[in-house]
């Protein structure tokens, strides 16, 4: 699975002008299931994010994890993280998991993160969404369970 984490002061996602998910200080997590991914990858990604020390401590150093801050997470499906841009000018997305698998693993990831004690809200899989965020830092981290 792939994810882009953005440390945020706040984030929200809207569908048709209606807020469907939001968080205060914490993480906006854009996530994509790749072909061949399983629940094990979703769970491993959740555990990694849960422990990743990218939040400031009292000295201003990135020493705290989301679990230490009490922050929340807004998890948004983002199949375009599978973009292959090696040839031509139009990205290909054939390495993304098929929609049924992608949706199942997206929800499994969100549930696994919530199971670790993180307050999680989500976007709507496959929907046209407007994502709003106030980036904190900015801190943006790319993760892939393959690497």
Give keywords.
147 residues; alpha/beta; D-tyrosyl-trna(Tyr) Deacylase, Chain: A; six-stranded mixed beta sheet; two-stranded antiparallel ribbon; 3 helices; 8 strands; globular
Q: What does this entry look like structurally?
A:
There is one protein chain. The chain is α/β, with parallel strands linked by helices and 147 residues long. It has one domain (2-84, 93-144): D-tyrosyl-tRNA(Tyr) deacylase (D-tyrosyl-trna(Tyr) Deacylase, Chain: A, 3-Layer(bba) Sandwich), CATH 3.50.80. 23% of the residues lie in helices and 41% in strands. It has helices at residues 39-51, 66-69, 99-115; strands at 2-15, 18-23, 26-32, 53-56, 62-65, 72-77, 119-122, 130-144. The strands form two sheets. Strands 1, 2, 3, 6, 7 and 8 form a six-stranded mixed sheet that branches. It is globular, with a radius of gyration of 15 Å.
What's the CATH topology label?
D-tyrosyl-trna(Tyr) Deacylase, Chain: A
Overall radius of gyration:
15 Å
Please tally the β strands and state the result: 8
In CATH, the homologous superfamily goes by the name D-tyrosyl-tRNA(Tyr) deacylase
Helix content: 10-25%
CATH class: Alpha Beta
Provide a brief overview of the structure:
By secondary structure, the protein is of the alpha/beta class. It has three helices and eight strands, in the order βββαββαβαββ.
Secondary-structure map with pairings?
Elements: E1 2-15, E2 18-23, E3 26-32, H1 39-51, E4 53-56, E5 62-65, H2 66-69, E6 72-77, H3 99-115, E7 119-122, E8 130-144
Parallel strand pairs: 3-6, 6-7
Antiparallel strand pairs: 1-2, 1-3, 1-8, 4-5
Helix pairs in contact: 1-3
């Amino acid at each position: 699975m792939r994810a882009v984490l953005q440390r945020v002061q706040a984030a929200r996602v809207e569908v048709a002008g209606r807020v469907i998910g939001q968080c205060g200080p914490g993480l906006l997590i854009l996530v994509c299931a790749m072909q061949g991914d399983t629940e094990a990858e979703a769970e491993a990604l959740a555990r990694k994010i849960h422990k990743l020390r990218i939040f400031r401590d009292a000295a201003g150093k990135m020493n705290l994890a989301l679990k230490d801050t009490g922050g929340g997470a807004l998890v948004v499906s983002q199949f375009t993280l599978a973009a292959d841009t090696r040839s031509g000018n139009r990205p290909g997305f054939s390495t993304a998991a098929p929609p049924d698998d992608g949706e199942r693993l997206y929800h499994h990831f969100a549930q696994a993160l919530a199971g670790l004690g993180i307050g999680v809200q989500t976007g709507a899989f496959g929907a046209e969404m407007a994502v709003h965020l106030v980036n904190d830092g900015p801190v943006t981290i790319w993760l892939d369970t393959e690497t």
